[in-house]
Amino acid sequence: MSKIDKQIESGEYFIREHERKLNKKRAKLEASAVKTVEKQKQKLKVYQAKEEAPREKQTKKRANDAPVDLEKLKKKAKLIKSSSK
């Protein structure tokens, strides 16, 4: 099939030349619009932060295993009071 036969079959052969050019232009604009949207999406992907796992709280925990010697603490408190006077 030749180009003219295809145009006759689709009805494009009978359309005015001006309308034919407009149809081609519209098709190009639609294709370029789709491409620009895809490019913009790809650019935005670069700037989006990746999802991170939630962080655990980093608090210092006291070691409750060591027993507190009250007698030593009382002696220290007395020494500090007596030295400050």
Short characterization:
This protein is mostly helical and 85 residues long. The protein has helices at residues 3-10, 17-47, 70-84.
Can you walk through the features of this model?
The chain is mainly α and 85 residues long. It has helices at residues 3-10, 17-47, 70-84. It has a domain at 1-47. Helix content is 64%, strand content 0%. The longest helix is centred in the middle third of the chain and has 31 residues, at 17-47. The termini are far apart. The mean pLDDT is 85. Residues 73-85 have a biased composition (Basic residues).
Enumerate the spans where pLDDT stays under 50 for 5 or more consecutive residues: none
Structural class given helices, strands, pairing?
Answer: mainly alpha
Mean pLDDT: 85
Total helix count?
Answer: 3
Helix content: 55-70%
Rounded to the nearest angstrom, the distance between the terminal CA atoms is 115 Å
Q: Rough shape? A: rod-shaped
Beta-strand content: under 5%
The count of strands amounts to: 0
Q: Could you state the order of secondary-structure elements as H and E?
A: HHH
- What does the largest sheet look like? none
Question: Which descriptors would you attach to this protein?
Answer:
rod-shaped, mainly alpha, 3 helices, 0% strand, single chain
